[in-house]
Write a structure and sequence with these properties.
It contains 21 helices and no strands. By secondary structure, the protein is mostly helical. The chain is globular.
């Protein structure tokens, strides 16, 4: 292949990359009304049709470990939902809380905890209708609790390598042990959740002080104890496997499959709860990003910006944090991690920088409604009950993002 053909392919690749991300970030443009998965699929097809990459190179570009891990955790979440676990937890919380402020705290802690165990987007898909039901039944204002759910799902998910998609990718690329990552990021997540509660409780104090909780008189759910016990036992063993260093993707998928066999439920119904659109989105995204990586553009960008990060571990950490936060809000966190992940081996302490990137790209999702998929899921799912405007979210999201990131960085640099 001569030089002119190489240049042509590079220009074509970058053009397809820009088109794909324009469609992804613009969501549904009137010119091309495509959602995220369809946009990523279009980018992949264009790369093959134009001869930039071959079908064989497409298959090699996909990070199957990430897709397998997502699938496994989605299956486990599906069985918890079918067992009535989330309804039971919500109803129990509503019965024991004494004040709206206490309910806000419990929601933040429970959402954050579950997002650390399972994928935050999945938790938001499952919990939003339940939270809406609980809050409406309790005759409380929706907005504070919707913001609490979305923000805590993002913050809590930073604690583990299975909490959100970008952490899964970081785990695959960095090879950091699950327990090592947990010990560093769990304190960051816990402090972040408390900061979120403090900001929301202060911001909504007048609204929350003026209402009282109406207790539910009857149970509005059916709890399948057999499936719930099976799922919880398997989930415990899955996380034991994570902690002792077993392969994350196949440990999760094995757990989901074991539940599928033991539950004796119609698997067609279970598989409907799997977010196949999200899996397709990531598969296409891997291909588009890998095609750009092959042009050498990310390396050129890093070489030109290298001076920004500084030479010491501390300066590199802080500069990577703000750079990742900005990049995540411009390009979305997963695409940013896929591209910027190539830079991490060049830093003084690569393992610490992977953790910094996980922290910054996750917490950056709380900046605006459009900052993460979890936010969009919560807001869109509750649209029939209340409209959450851009500024309604941002006036709390901005301080939550800035303070949790700054405090989290201090903790992370201290712990290492």
């Amino acid at each position: 292949m001569n030089c002119s053909e190489d240049v042509y392919k590079e220009i074509l690749t970058i053009g397809i990359f820009c088109l794909t991300y324009l469609l992804i970030s613009g969501r549904r443009l009137k010119i091309l009304p495509l959602n995220r998965p369809a946009s990523a699929l279009l980018g992949t097809v264009l790369l093959v049709v134009t001869g930039v990459i071959t079908p064989e190179e497409v298959y090699r570009s996909i990070q199957y470990d990430t897709l397998v891990l997502l699938l496994g955790m989605m299956l486990i979440s599906a069985y918890l939902y079918m067992a009535g676990f989330f309804d039971w937890i919500s109803d129990w919380i509503l019965r024991i809380v004494s004040t709206p402020q206490r309910l806000l705290l419990y929601l933040i802690l429970s959402s954050g905890f579950m997002s650390a165990l399972l994928v935050n987007d999945t938790i938001c898909m499952i919990l939003t209708p339940l939270v809406v039901t609980v809050i409406v039944r309790g005759q409380l204002p929706l907005v504070p609790y919707l913001l609490a759910l979305a923000m805590s799902a993002n913050i809590g998910s930073v604690a583990t390598l299975v909490g959100n998609p970008q952490n899964m990718i970081i785990g695959h690329l960095s090879k950091i042990p699950f327990s090592n990552f947990l010990l560093s990021l769990l304190p960051v997540a816990l402090v972040g959740l408390l900061i979120e509660y403090f900001i929301l409780s202060i911001g909504f104090r007048k609204i929350l002080n003026g209402v009282q909780i109406k207790r539910p008189e009857t149970k509005a759910y059916k709890l399948d104890k057999r499936i719930l016990i099976i799922t919880l036992i398997v989930l415990v063993f899955v996380f034991i496997g994570f902690m002792i260093g077993l392969n994350l993707p196949w440990t999760a998928l094995t757990g989901g499959t074991v539940i599928m066999v033991l539950a004796r439920k119609d698997t067609h119904q279970v598989l409907k709860f799997v977010d196949w659109h999200l899996l397709l989105f990531f598969a296409g995204l891997f291909v588009v990003v890998e095609s750009v990586n092959r042009t050498g553009l990310p390396d050129q960008i890093y070489n030109n910006l290298r001076w920004i990060f500084g030479g010491s571990q501390t300066s590199q950490g802080w500069n990577l944090a703000w750079f990742s936060a900005v990049g995540s809000n411009i390009f979305s966190n997963v695409p940013f991690v896929l591209v910027a992940g190539k830079w991490i081996p060049n830093f003084t302490n690569p393992e610490l920088m992977w953790k910094v990137m996980a922290l910054a790209t996750t917490f950056a999702g709380n900046l605006t409604i459009l900052g993460s998929v979890a936010n969009i899921i919560v807001v869109e799912s509750a649209r029939g009950y209340v409209e959450v405007g851009f500024w309604d979210y941002a006036k709390y999201g901005i301080p939550v993002t800035i303070i949790t990131t700054v405090v989290g960085m201090f903790i992370l640099l201290l712990i290492g």
